[in-house]
Amino acid sequence: MIEIARREEIDNQYKWKVEKLYADAAAWEQDMEQLKQMLPQGERFRGHLADSAEMLFACIHWQEQTGMLLEKLYLYASLRHDEDTANPLYQGLNERIQSVAVAYSQAMAFFSPEVLAIPEQVLESYLQHPDLRPYRRLFDDITRMRPHTLSPAEEQLLAGTAEMAESFSNTYGMLTNADMPLPAIRNEQGEEERLSSGNYIRFLRSSDRRVRKDAFCAMYNGYAAFGNTIASTLSGSVRKDNFYAAAGRYDSALAASLFGDNVEESVYHNLIQVVRAHQGDMERYLQRRRQLLQVDELHMYDIYVPLFPDYRRQFDWEQAKDLVIEALTPLGPSYQRTLRQGLDNGWVDVYENKGKRSGAYSSGVYGTDPYILLNFQGDLDSVFTLIHESGHSMHSYYSRRTQPYVYADYRIFVAEVASTVNENLLIHYLLQRATDKQERRYLINHFLEEF
Hints:
451 residues; 5 strands; 3-stranded mixed beta sheet; mainly alpha; two-stranded antiparallel sheet
């Protein structure tokens, strides 16, 4: 039977180089100890932010130095944890740094309330100080948050709930990535192959309807076996969001979610309305899909299979990288060189292994390389995932090298722009080079599915 590879069975050339962050857990522990020593130092600023521009800047500087160290420690622990969510060593590191992150939030809970208590004219005079001028946007954001900022004691209490609030997400992740058993199914060749979150979509793209149905039923029967547990984690997560919204004096959890990014609720509701207005187009497409697949009834396991299966391409890792780099030619040789060097030198954790977190993401913090988690399956979807996550990583790469720490991160509202542009460049590159009508149909069908 074909089993999911264990972590140690994957060649090192296909693993991200997390050792660039810390050589090992012992090196991580040294910085962890340093961070613990830094945290109490924030107390010297409590009650004194209004004393002078120099004191306000000193607090911001301490925040940044402490925050950068915390983020680096968090990154290492989370990446190691996601390599194999069942590894107890990295489970421990991840839980510990989450606790310290909560302690850091508690230690700094006084900052925004104290800034808001500084008289407007005094704060404006402080912002004329050369060291504080770059932070005007930060203080504008703090001022915008005034209606939802509590007292220092209340903010500190609220910050202390963060670790507990994450338990719903953590429980769901451990259950579905590490503990939930999935059966083997027979693939198109009749071989038994272990089902996983990584290969699930590959099975759903099979031209053999029996394979698609078996994979779909096996996956959702696996979830159904833990239905009460999963429903409980979801219910807890919803209650958590509602609690934070009420505590922050927001009208709803939706309002709380959007306010931080300064996005009007009307934008969200308009998006939903536009999608619903075009529901008929989706229904006509699904009807056409049913006809082309020649099935009496379209099921969920029929949604992902290509409508033109005669054209299929498989890519090994080197071919996928080459295709991505070539498709990004419009972004210029400097962009291509930087990405190529990253993909060749440890930015990416390529292949699925037992216990690895499902899906894909781009991560990294200020002062580090980007890191990309994949569960590469060698199909066209995998290439699109690679170029998508590369967009995030290059966005972060440039932002962290051209922006100061306080502004290097970017809002979720714009985060998908770079990644989606990359996907569009790839589909245009492939369509321009398609050699026959069947290939073009396959690619257009794939592009439609991206919606």
